[in-house]
């Protein structure tokens, strides 16, 4: 039996908090199914759900996005996976039981789509669900039947591998209902085993909305796991999800990441300042960066945020340590993330009034006099790339604005 790609080195195991321990049946004792090398850094890509949702999802739209990923510089900035979410499926399986794509919206089929995606130097992601239904069948009246993977796990994994799929989003969608008897970890481990048996390296995204503390169990199977319900395109939603990340940092690391959901950067409902802070927070959280906007029509400001080299470098820092909120003063929050070489602080203004910052004696202080950042090394504003003078620098943080300040390794 062929297992899934390269096994982790001792160092990787150590830094990812241990390897997955499930054994594939038939005597492959002790074999690890999860290939941590597929996600040593938080995965980056684009996902169709936030912008196309269900019925607007078409082959033409997806290929337009693939082209835009290349032309806009997103691919070269590191966005690798183009993930086609729910509603790609025909309303029923073939008579052989195999899944097929919706004939009107994906007339060329998923194998051809995968080829087109690969031809652009991108990787191909698809969506499945472990029970009888996908979420769109429940929440978007998708009139399909039996397209969930329950008792079709191996067939569906083989089908996806045959189509050249590189990333699977496996989305709970009440998989325990309808007599399946599935528990959450069981649903996700069944597909992990099926994916391992295909022999194809496939990044495995576990989506159960943070309901069963997946950070405590999902690292055995997946490369990322949702920690929250669905994001919406509003500052309120972004803040709600951010507040649920507290205490989760220790569970993430190279090979397995907490996933607070896809990005809403560039979508209606969130302004440019908020979008930038949202992105900075996902960077501080070492979160997967899955863009969720229409890349074909994005503004220069949106592109600038999504492809900012200094922010992407922080996201992809090789230490892979998730950052956290470390202090609060009124509506101002202080965040910190340790890096392979130094650390980065974030100051977030959640309030409705501007907040003034200044440098004093090599640190950053609030107008209340509260000292926020103290570091001996040189401080640099990540967004502008400019050094912050030890004394005499000042800035105003607008409502919902965040600033990231990087300090080098010399402390
Ligand atoms: C759930 C997931 C979303 C999306 C939809 C698709 O709500 O959380 O991210 O995949 O299902 O129906």
TrEMBL record:
Listed EC numbers: 3.2.1.22
Instruction: Give me the reactions it catalyses.
Output: Hydrolysis of terminal, non-reducing alpha-D-galactose residues in alpha-D-galactosides, including galactose oligosaccharides, galactomannans and galactolipids
In terms of Pfam families, this protein maps to: Melibiase_2
Q: Give the first-level EC class, as a single word.
A: hydrolase
- Which residues fall in a compositionally biased region of kind Basic and acidic residues? 10-23
- UniProt keyword annotation of Disulfide bond present: yes
Write out the ranges of the annotated region (Disordered).
Answer: 1-23
Q: Which UniProt keywords apply?
A: Disulfide bond, Glycosidase, Hydrolase
Q: Please list the GO terms describing molecular function.
A: alpha-galactosidase activity
InterPro entries recorded for this chain? Aldolase_TIM, GH, Glyco_hydro_27
A biological process from GO = carbohydrate metabolic process
Annotated family: Belongs to the glycosyl hydrolase 27 family.
- Name listed for the protein in its UniProt record: Alpha-galactosidase
Species of the source: Glaciibacter psychrotolerans
């Amino acid at each position: 039996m062929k297992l899934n790609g390269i096994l982790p080195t001792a160092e990787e195991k150590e830094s990812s908090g241990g390897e997955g321990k499930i054994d594939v049946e038939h005597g492959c004792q002790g074999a690890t199914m999860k290939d941590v090398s597929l996600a040593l850094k938080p995965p980056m890509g684009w996902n169709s759900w936030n912008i196309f949702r269900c019925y607007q999802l078409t082959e033409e739209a997806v290929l337009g996005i693939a082209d835009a990923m290349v032309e806009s510089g997103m691919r070269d900035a590191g966005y690798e996976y183009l993930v086609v979410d729910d509603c790609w499926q025909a309303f029923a399986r073939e008579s052989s039981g195999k899944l097929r794509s919706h004939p009107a919206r994906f007339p060329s089929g998923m194998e051809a789509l995968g080829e087109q995606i690969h031809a652009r130097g991108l990787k191909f992601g698809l969506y499945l669900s472990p029970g009888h239904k996908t979420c769109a069948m429940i929440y978007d009246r998708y009139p399909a039947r039996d397209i969930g993977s329950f008792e079709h796990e191996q067939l569906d994994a083989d089908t996806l591998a045959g189509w050249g799929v590189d990333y699977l989003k496996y989305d709970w969608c009440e998989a325990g209902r309808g007599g399946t008897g599935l528990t959450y970890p069981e649903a996700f481990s069944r597909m992990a085993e099926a994916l391992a048996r295909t022999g194809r390296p496939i990044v495995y995204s576990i989506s159960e909305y943070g309901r069963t503390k997946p950070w405590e169990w999902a690292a055995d199977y997946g490369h990322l796991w949702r920690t929250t319900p669905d994001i919406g395109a509003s500052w309120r939603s972004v803040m709600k999800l951010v507040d649920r990340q507290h205490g989760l940092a220790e569970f993430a690391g190279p090979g397995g990441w907490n996933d607070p959901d896809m990005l809403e950067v560039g979508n209606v409902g969130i302004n440019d300042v908020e979008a930038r802070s949202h992105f900075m927070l996902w960077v501080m959280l070492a979160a997967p960066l899955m863009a969720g906007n229409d890349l074909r029509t994005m503004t220069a400001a949106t592109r600038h945020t999504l492809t900012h080299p200094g922010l992407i470098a922080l996201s992809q820092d090789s230490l892979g340590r998730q950052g956290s909120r470390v202090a609060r003063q009124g509506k101002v929050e202080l965040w910190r993330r340790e890096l392979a070489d130094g650390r980065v602080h974030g100051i977030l203004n959640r309030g409705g009034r501007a907040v003034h910052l200044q440098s004093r004696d090599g640190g950053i202080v609030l107008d209340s006099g509260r000292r926020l950042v103290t570091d001996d090394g040189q401080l640099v504003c990540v967004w502008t790339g400019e050094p912050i003078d030890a004394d005499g620098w000042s800035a105003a943080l607008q409502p919902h604005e965040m600033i990231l300040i990087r300090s080098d390794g010399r402390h």
